[in-house]
Structures are given as structure tokens and as C-alpha cells.
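Supplementary Methods S3. Input chains for the assembly prediction are listed below.
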Amino acid sequence: MPFHPPSTIGMLGGGQLGRMFALEARRAGYRVVIFTDEPKGCPAGQYADNEINAPYDDAEALKRFLSQVDVVTAEFENLPGSLLEAVEAVKPLRPSSKAIVTTQHRERENLFLREKGIACAEFRVVNDLKSLEAAVSELGRPCVIKTAAFGYDGKGQCKVNADTNLAEAWKAFEGHRAVVEQWVPFVCEVSVVGARGVDGKMAVHGCVENLHTHHILDVTISPARVEPAITEQAIELWEAVAEGLNYVGTMAVEMFVTSEGRVLVNEIAPRPHNSGHYTIDACITNQFQQQQRVICGLPPGDPSQHTPAVMVNLLGDIWPAPTTHPDWSPVLNHPRAKLHLYGKKEARARRKMGHFTVLGDTVEEALEHALQIRKALGIG
Ligand code: AMP
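Predicted C-alpha cells for the full assembly:
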């Protein structure tokens, strides 16, 4: 039986993805309860019906949370596996603990891709200097060392160039497991965001193009300016990942496009994704509405994009002081731009504080407007 409003959806995590989810779910008449280790008034909590703020291993708080909700989802993946299993024992957790635990950890994620025969960069798993040396000699330089657990936005990564001293490089990973990946000389980075329902029905938003600065997503262009064959491959990869994980929920897959026209999976996010934020303003059903629909057992909505769009991230770097906002006039005065702020109390360098999306009759027009607004806001 699907969960209809006014059922209560439980959300693990309190960040901006939970916030945008809560806005959509409440608009449709659902109740939303957040369980987060962040203090009260976190981005998601500001729009939730109730917010439980406690460490993730607080059994009493978890019990209280579970007693208030009908179905549970997560807005980020770096959650203890024991918590996910405890949730799943009592209430439906979508996506499953297995899907989240697989994708939260680079080693498990890459081994899953290899096992399913899904295209990704060549890699080796390493746990000491000796295995690192062997991996680098097999894969060749350049390559990249990535921490197995809790890496994101390029954190916990080290590129191994021709002159990199491996003993030095290994110091940052000492005592941990890591994955060494062959360097992919990509021509562009793309991603696909989509949703898969309880009955296996899938709906993808299409293939978007991502530009990163300092390993953090900077700009998303949708649709991606790539050949149809690339879009097709990207969507097929997304579907293979979703089926391989028996996934239920909204999921993003980030990919590399090589100069030979191959598409390789880089990373899976078991949740809505920054590169899917444009869907709020440019698609019939956005990524958060899809998450709400499928975790409640409803079929995914129509994911079609109605207008070309460009999304630009707003990082704390452009805040004049931690609690002083920039002058938003360049976004607010633009008739086809939409500002989204995440309600974070203090800005810090590289912290994701918000984004804006600008629509255009063509991708080129949207991009031109986005770049003008970006420049007027002082984004480097
Ligand atoms: P990740 O945290 O794995 O998404 O990596 C952050 C960024 O580092 C990616 O968006 C790429 O720009 C770059 N990168 C990561 N892995 C590789 C690779 N194997 N080859 C080339 N670039 C990579």
C-alpha cells in the first residue's frame, strides 16, 4: 500500500538536500520529521514538522524518531550502517541500507561496479605502501588515490603524478583502506539523476554536464552539450546501477566522458544530487518530488525537462562576512533566474550556501545569462 498524505516521512540528515525535500513533501501534504546530529534549526529542520537532534548512536532518540514516522529516507550517505539497519528493522527504509552502505564507501562501490560489469576507471584496492606501489606500477601514472570511506567533493584524494613520492603520498592514508584509480583523461563530466520505484519503474531526468572548480560542482548545464550516443550510454549506465542495487529512491550517477566517446561511472550518490537542482525549476517533476513519490510507493512522475537550464552553486566564498549576505540583485532582478538559499547560519569558504538556476530558450542563452549573473556576484 502506498503512503498517501498525511503520512509522515522520516529523513536521516539535516542538510540542504533534506531541506529541499521537506519543502516539496510538505507542499504535497506529507509530514516530515528529521533525525540529525546537527543542532536545532539546521537547513532541513527549518522546514520540517519536527526535528530530533541527537547523535546517530542515541538509541532512545532513534526510537522516538521511528515512533513518529511511516517511511524513512536519507539525505546523505555518510551514516553508520548500524543506524541504517536499526531503522530498516522497524520501518521501510528507501533506498535500502544495502544500497546506501554499498555507495557510501569507495571500495564497496567500485567492487559493485566491477561485479556488475558496469564501465568505470580501472582500479585497485590498497591498504599499505607496498600494495600502493604495486597498484601504481600496474595502473601507471597519473592515477589517483581515494580514501575508501567518507570521501566527497574531492576530499581524501591525492593525484599521483610522474614525480609524486609514494611514501609521502601514503602518509595521508596511513591506517586506512584506499582505492587507486587510473587517471581518466576525460573531455567532460556528466551526470544522470533519476528515480526508481518500488516496482522497478525508472524515470531519469536526462544527462547533464557538470563543471567543477577545486573538485566542487560549480555549474550544471542541462541538457548536456554532448552527442545523443553519449546521453544514451549515460542513461544506460544509470539504469544498470539502479537495477544492480535494486534501488528505490532518487539517485545520481556522476560519469566521465572520454575522447573516444566512452562513458565511465565515477561516483554514485544514493540520494538527490547537486547536479539535479536544476530540476526544481526546469522539470515537470523535480528530483525531490520523485524521491517523495517513490519512497512512498507511488510511481515516479514525469521527469521531462520543459526549459533548458543552467545551475550555478553559491559557495560561502562570496559572502563578505560569515553572516553578511552578498547583494543578490543580479539574481533577483533577472526575470528567468531563481535563487535558492539553504538557511545556513554561517558562511565558510567552499561551503555550499545556495544555488541559482537560470532558464533560457536554448542552453547557450541560459549559459550566457548564468555567466553574466555569476560575474556580477563576484564568482571567480
Ligand atoms: P570524486 O570525489 O571522485 O567525484 O572526484 C572529484 C573530481 O576529481 C572529479 O569530478 C574529477 O574531476 C576528478 N577525478 C576523480 N577521479 C578521477 C579519475 N579517475 N580520473 C580523472 N579525474 C578524476
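DSSP finds twelve helices and 16 strands in the chain. The CA atoms of residues 189 and 226 lie 10 Å apart.
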